[in-house]
Amino acid sequence: MLSDVNAVKSVLNKHEWLIGSGCTVHMTPYRDILSNYKSENLGSVSMANEKRCDVLGIGDICMIFENGFKFTLKNVKHVPDLAHNLMSCSALEEEGLEGRWGKGIMNIMKGSLNVFKAERKKNLYICSVTYDIIAASVTHMNTSDLWPKRLGHISSKGLELLHKHGVLNDKINDLSFCDDCS
Questions:
Q1: For the segment 95-131, what is each residue's pLDDT rounded down to a tens digit?
Q2: Rounded to two decimals, what is the model's pTM?
Q3: Domains and CATH numbers, the chain
């Protein structure tokens, strides 16, 4: 397997993921695709070539697959010294997904729904994705700005009343209302 990895790693890019049963967790060297990132020393992981690589943090990745399906990989380890992205079959199974393969294609399913597929290249399964950076960046928005939209464009007085009665835990800051509601 190591020779197969070496054969394809020079052509893999940020948008391609190796899917394997030898990997126990999802990992990426790319910090910029992780959302909900927590920077912390999480020890190290052992590679197939017996090299150890430090884990510098953990986060989620919102992916869009070629079929248009969106899926968020949870608890992805940030391993900067990794040569490419790795997706774990066992971690996918823990998330309720299963793999079915044949004729050079691995279909990752949730029940009867085909979430995504990976193609076999040099005896390794590789899937291509794009990243939903917009969805990932929502975690950095002021949550009080989201409430007027979530509650049918409720007024600031209505939000203050909900906050006063303990319905909303968020502190209501200066809100930015849409053109129709201002």
A1: 999 999 899 999 999 988 899 999 999 889 999 999 9
A2: 0.68
A3: 2-136 (2.40.70), 141-182 (no CATH)
**Token pair 């949730």 is at which residue?**
110
Please report where in the chains the tokens 């020393």 appear, as a residue.
41
- How far is it, in rounded angstroms, from Cα 120 to Cα 131? 22
The alpha carbon of residue 89 and the mean position of all alpha carbons in its chain are separated, in whole angstroms, by 15
pLDDT per position as a tens digit, 19-31: 988 889 999 999 9
Distance CA 2, CA 8 (A): 10
CB 56 within 8 A of CB 79: yes
| Confidence at 3, pLDDT banded by 50, 70, 90 | very low
With 0-12 CB in 10 A as exposed, 13-18 as middle and 19+ as buried, what is 87? buried
Q: 3-state SS of the chain: helix, strand, coil percent to 5? A: 25, 35, 40
